[in-house]
Design brief:
There is one protein chain. With 126 residues, this protein is of the alpha+beta class. The chain has one domain: Alpha-Beta Plaits. The chain has helices at 8-14, 36-45, 51-60, 79-84; strands at 4-6, 19-29, 62-65, 71-74, 87-91, 94-106. It is globular, with a radius of gyration of 16 Å.
Length: 126
């Protein structure tokens, strides 16, 4: 996929820059579940008859869910997106559609909403 529109949130979380990508993967679910990242990680762990290799890939990659339900994965190595491109993985009743993202553009009107939330930590003293 080329020139894929991505939110500012995903760009910030995964540390991406607009333009060419070699390690980025996008995964769509046919039936979105409550925890999209867990479903995608579980599906990736059990493909290719090489579960050990894929478990390592899952633990070494960064995951992020966009507001539209697409799970983006920043793989540690640029070989993995090419190997996984255009795969369909069955996880329960849902199908995961995996694509390599070759380049990204900033989605118009997107913001870093989750990144801009003010967090205050209060520590009670006894």
């Amino acid at each position: 996929m080329e020139n894929m529109p991505v939110s500012a949130y995903v760009i910030e979380v995964l540390g991406l820059t607009v333009g060419e990508q070699s390690r980025l993967i996008a995964v769509w679910q046919s039936m979105p579940s409550g925890d999209a990242v867990s479903s995608v990680a579980r599906g990736l762990k059990h493909i290719e008859h090489k579960p050990l290799t894929m478990r390592t890939m899952v633990t070494e990659s960064k995951f992020c869910v966009d507001h539209n339900g697409v799970v983006y994965i920043l793989a540690k190595y640029d070989r993995l997106p090419r190997v996984l491109n255009m795969r369909m993985i069955q996880v329960g009743d849902s199908a995961l559609h995996v694509y390599q993202v070759k380049s990204i553009v900033l989605r118009t009107g997107s913001c870093k909403a989750f990144m801009d939330i003010l967090v205050r930590i209060k520590v009670p003293f006894f």
